[in-house]
Every structure is written in structure tokens, then in C-alpha cells.
Design goal:
single chain; mainly alpha; 3-stranded antiparallel beta sheet; 6% strand; binds zinc ion
């Protein structure tokens, strides 16, 4: 995965352009007028850009403006013919906390897999994990069954990590199934066990690849459930015994579509009142982000300082 990472970093290091209308202090979302202006400017720059880097810069500049309209402008570019553009869009959408960004990212995973663009898929998985919208978990879980496909294998660790970050309980059984498959391939029990196996001619390092999934799968199971076990059977038994109690204590994360303010730890099946609404009890702007059994994993912390207001 080092190659993918290097490519992503290279994309992010592309030449900088001056920042557009900065997000208003203390607010997460720009005004519609600011979004319209940024989109108009983007369209001009993007259509004139005859260099990939010009278009990538235009995407980065537009993505600094947070608004649903910007999200809807960016999402179709996930399948843009220029892979660098699509990858940059996938990275940038990860900082737009709107369900349309998550749904757009999930919807484009299949097309980018088919087009053999693992960098775009890996970036999409990373953003999906960051956003954490439960509705997108199923798209990623479906990939677990395609572990026979080399293209899927390449991005499967990214997909599995994202599944763990999202934390949907519905992913637990498919993850245990995959863990079982990794145990039945080379090196079975032994930690880090060779897995070179004597099956001549069957794929290249396939058993090794399966063995490498064990760590991410176990990490995702821990992140979702808060439990631990040392084998698929162990996980299966623990999950069957603990599931009902964990589900009964599950907590919902909600978000206001207008202000992009999240409400954590609320009841999963009852909309909380929105904090931005002036009229009490107003909740039509609230959407469910996800339901989790445990506290969400801490987002890779840049630094614990900054009391807020900055972004
Ligand atoms: Zn609201």
C-alpha cells in the first residue's frame, strides 16, 4: 500500500493556489451565495485548465467552500477521466460532512474498481471511514466477498479499516466470515505464519495476501464491538453471547443538514431536536449518520490543542 500512499501524498502536494472565501469563523458551512460564487469560478478554471494540475488545483480550491451545492458539484467528478482529478475529489469529499458526499463516494467505488483505479478507491475508502455514514457500510462490506479478485484485494485493507471506523453492527458477521477464510489459508494458526504453501501455480502470494487481512479484520471487529478474541470461532461465540446487550445500548450520531453540527450519543431511533433551529422541537433537518455499539475510534489526532472555532 506504500505506492498508493505515495501517490496520494503527491496529489495532495500539488502546487497551492490562493485560498477562496474562507469559511466564516466559527461556522462549518458557507452561505449559498459563497457556494454559487465558488462554483462559477471553479467551472471557469476547470474548463480552461488544459493541465491535470490546473484541474486538481481547481478542485482543491472549490473544496475549501463547505456547502451541499459544492458537494453535488464534486461528486460526479469521482468518475472523471483524469484519475488524479478523481482521486483528489475523493480525498476532498472526506472533509464535507454531508450525507451526499458519503453516498456519492460509496456509489462511485464500483465504477472506479471496474476502471482499475485503486488510488481513487483507496482514497474513497479513507474518506468514507472518516465521514462514518452507516448507509455506506454495506457497499464496503460487499467487497469482502470479492477477496478472490486481485483488484479488490489491493484495496481491501482500506475498505476493512473504513468499515471499522463506520462501526455498523451489520458488518460483524461478514467480518468474522472473512477472518475464518484467512485462517484456512496458508500459515493457519502460527502468528505471521509463512503461508507460502505448496500449492504450485495458484495465484501469486494469494495466501500471504489473505493472511495480511487478519490484522485489519481483527482491528475492525474490535473497533465496532469493543470486544476481543483470538480466532474466528472465538469471535463468533463472543458476538453471539454479547450482541443483544450491545445492540440494546447502541448510540446514534445525528447531523443537521443545514449547520453540519453533529449530535453524538443520542437515541438511534428518535430524532433529537436541532441545535440550530430557532423554533423548539424542530428536527426536520436532522439525519442519522450512524448507530454504534461503542465509542467511535478517535480520529487520527493532528494535535489535541485548539479549543475550537478554527474550522
Ligand atoms: Zn438543523
Amino acid at each position: 500500500m506504500h505506492l498508493l500512499l505515495a501517490l496520494l501524498l503527491a496529489i495532495q502536494d500539488a502546487p497551492k493556489s490562493p485560498p477562496p472565501a474562507p469559511a466564516p469563523a466559527g461556522a462549518k458551512v458557507n452561505t449559498e451565495a459563497e457556494a454559487d460564487a465558488a462554483i462559477a469560478e471553479f467551472k471557469k478554471a476547470f474548463s480552461k485548465g488544459d493541465l491535470t494540475s490546473t484541474r486538481v488545483d481547481a478542485v482543491k480550491k472549490l473544496a475549501q467552500v463547505k456547502h451541499e451545492k459544492v458537494v453535488r458539484q464534486l461528486v460526479p467528478l469521482l468518475t472523471h477521466a483524469l484519475e488524479d482529478v478523481a482521486a483528489q475529489v475523493a480525498v476532498q469529499l472526506g472533509s464535507h460532512d454531508h450525507h451526499a458526499a458519503a453516498e456519492g463516494l460509496a456509489a462511485a467505488v464500483g465504477a472506479n474498481l471496474t476502471a482499475k483505479r485503486p488510488v481513487v478507491v483507496a482514497a474513497s475508502c479513507s474518506s468514507l471511514g472518516k465521514l462514518g455514514y452507516e448507509a455506506t457500510s454495506a457497499t464496503l462490506v460487499k467487497l469482502l466477498d470479492k477477496n478472490g479478485d486481485d483488484d479488490v484485494m489491493l484495496i481491501l485493507p482500506d475498505a476493512i479499516r473504513a468499515i471499522g471506523q463506520i462501526g455498523s453492527a451489520s458488518a460483524v458477521d461478514p467480518l468474522i466470515d472473512l477472518l475464518r477464510k484467512t485462517e484456512s489459508t496458508g500459515g493457519g494458526g502460527g502468528p505471521g505464519g509463512g503461508g507460502r504453501g505448496g500449492r504450485g501455480g495458484r495465484g501469486f502470494g494469494r495466501d500471504d495476501d489473505m493472511a495480511k487481512l487478519r490484522g485489519p479484520v481483527t482491528g475492525a471487529l474490535r473497533a465496532i464491538t469493543g470486544g476481543d478474541a483470538d480466532s474466528a470461532n472465538g469471535w463468533d461465540q463472543w458476538w453471539k453471547a454479547s450482541r443483544a446487550e450491545l445492540l440494546a445500548g447502541a448510540k446514534g450520531t445525528w447531523i443537521c443538514k443545514t449547520s453540519w453540527d453533529r449530535v453524538e450519543g443520542a437515541a438511534p431511533n428518535k430524532k433529537p431536536a436541532c441545535s440550530h433551529a430557532a423554533d423548539k422541537g424542530h428536527d426536520s433537518c436532522m439525519v442519522l449518520v450512524r448507530v454504534r455499539l461503542t465509542e467511535p475510534p478517535a480520529p487520527a489526532p493532528p494535535s489535541p490543542r485548539d479549543g475550537g472555532g478554527g474550522k
